[in-house]
Amino acid sequence: MTRVTADRRAVLSARGAWGVLALAGVATALVALEPGLRSAGTVYAGVVTVMLILAGVWWHRPGSGFWPLVALMVACWTVGAAVVHFEGHITAWATAAVWAGQGVATVVTIRAVGPGRHVRVRSLTAVLDLVIITTVTVLVGAQIVVAGTGHRHNWTAVSVASVDVALLSMLVRFAVSRRALTTSTWLVLVGAALTFGYDLNQAVNGRRLALPGDAGQVLGVACLVFFGAAALHPSMTKAFDARTLAQRRPGSTALLGLLPLVLVPLAVAWAADVADVRTLPLWAVPSAGAVVAGLCLVRGSNALRSSEYLAEHDPLTIWPTGAGSPGPSRRPTAPAR
After folding, report:
1. Got the DSSP string for 251-300?
2. What digits encode the pLDDT tens for the residues 261-283?
């Protein structure tokens, strides 16, 4: 009876999570079509998300303190959005609330995907993965800072981009290196990616928050509800469990996740040209692209050599298999009786 009840609770919570995303899609479409609803919609989305996270914690009883921190993070951002909504402009209190939320987000990211929670893998593969992701994120962050500052000293763009790019680098490395991620984990990662997009877009415009009716508030509504849906899903209890996150992807699979990063330098150059903003020096983007492409080739070669070694050697005895196996005189023999 207990097992049936637990299964039914899991089914209901899973349906609730997907239902939240469906309703969020409708709400996002409404605020996109009606600018007058965007400011209030952002506040309502934040309030509902906090309630959903708290409901998920009460319903599923996760063992970690990750989810209360997520609720606090969203609550800080909601306070900032509410102040802007009621005041009609960005105040110091709104900015302080958003910075507080970003501080909590930093703690959440480091707590969830930082190296301290997992076994460190000091191998050539891990080093190459880190260098590739770092190169790409530094390039993106530098372009954002250059575009945001222009001919004026916009320290908001510099500071926000620096923090966001560092956190985004950690999330990308986490996503491509871990396997067996739960549905709840993927929902959190999507929400985090949308949040970074919102944050960086506002930073480039020299603001910390979107103004009432601004198109950026549409993205703000979309990013918040993903955290609420993730908390409702039954897999939230294992979303950031240390034993689950310690499972790493095979080298070849992780390489496939890194390959799209080769296109990022070209995308950065194209976006800067289309937006007609201040760009990095001409040598920066091709150099970064060449570095990323070269590192991916080295990474692929390393993965291929590892696969060939495992295919040609017995995993238990490390003896070569097939044609390269040792002769009778070299093979270990059972002792005579």
Report:
1. HHHHHHHHGGGGGHHHHHHHHHHHHT-----TTHHHHHHHHHHHHHHHHH
2. 777 777 777 766 666 667 777 78
